[in-house]
Amino acid sequence: MRRTLLAVVVLALLAAACSPNPGSSAVEPGDWPGVLSEADGQTVRWWLFGGDERVNRFIDDHVAPAAADLGVTVQKVPVDSTVEAVRRVLAELEAGRDDGGVDLVWVNGENFALGREAGAWLTDWATRLPNSALVDWSDPAIATDFGVPVDGDESPWARAAFVFAHDPGRTPDPPRSFVALLDYARQHPGRVTYPAPPDFTGAAFVRQAVTALGEHEAFALLAELKPLQWREGEAFPGSEAELSRLFADGQVDLAMSYDPTFVATAVHQGAFGESVRPFTFTGGTLQNTSYVAIPRNAANTAGALVVADLLLSPELQAIMNDPAVWGMPTVLDLDRLDADQRDALDAVAGPHVPADLGDPIAELPVDRVEPINRRWRQEVAR
Length: 382
Fold this sequence. Notes:
alpha/beta, D-Maltodextrin-Binding Protein, domain 2, 2 domains
């Protein structure tokens, strides 16, 4: 199914690349009063992954009301994958439509790259939003999206980081590196595991090993780790949720997630005990960023710019940062905020939220993700 879908996208890319430019919006991001005036009364159709209820509540309860105060209506278009939005944009570009049905997309690195190759995105706008001055665009976890330079063509709004969890009552000194994890497994066989790629969390765990150790050394370590794992490595959890259940039941000693506040969320929901604590590996933390992109033929470009700017507001970033709402770390540079804005972000800190995510390690280029998953299947899962 995935190969068929990508084939359709590639065909659309070729067609769109050869089609005439239907014309880009006359909206000038640098003229913010003009943007606000044109956006008043517009409805922004935001295509996004619809499977996370925390995201849906954040948008419905906080983003949409803030946009409504500026005269902009936010209409969510939930999809299973943002490739659906890219396909829609490319089809409309091929047809020469300059009033497309997609105004804003929560996009990932792969689909951002596909759209850029076809010239599908509005360019040179993200760094000209008023709130973009609060972003450190030199941060490697923001400047590139899975190895693809952002170059002002998409705007960040949420940060993810790879975080582990332990219960000090049974694991007072958890391993804080991949070498230490292997040593821990030797001393405590059967007490560690991770989800099998291509599960999102399991694949990220493998990529963090690759970034920390180098690809050859990482796969050698993972192969040595396998027989020391839960069920002697003959079975892997199928998802992060399954690993979390094993951890909560005391069958394994560590849990993990690309959601840095997953411990706080699990404690809040009663899935983890109050004693569980998050931690990160030393030597850096795999991080990536969620972005929004605007199609160059969006019918409501001004409204989309307003929503993208609101997503960078310190007020909405503080709400998003709250584990009771969503719990994603801010993409803003704290040194660029005033004292009250920093205090609002610090207010959600607690024992179930990492105090420090460590030095960011940028994600690998998108074209390395599937080869690494494939190598894991061939050398580790076999």
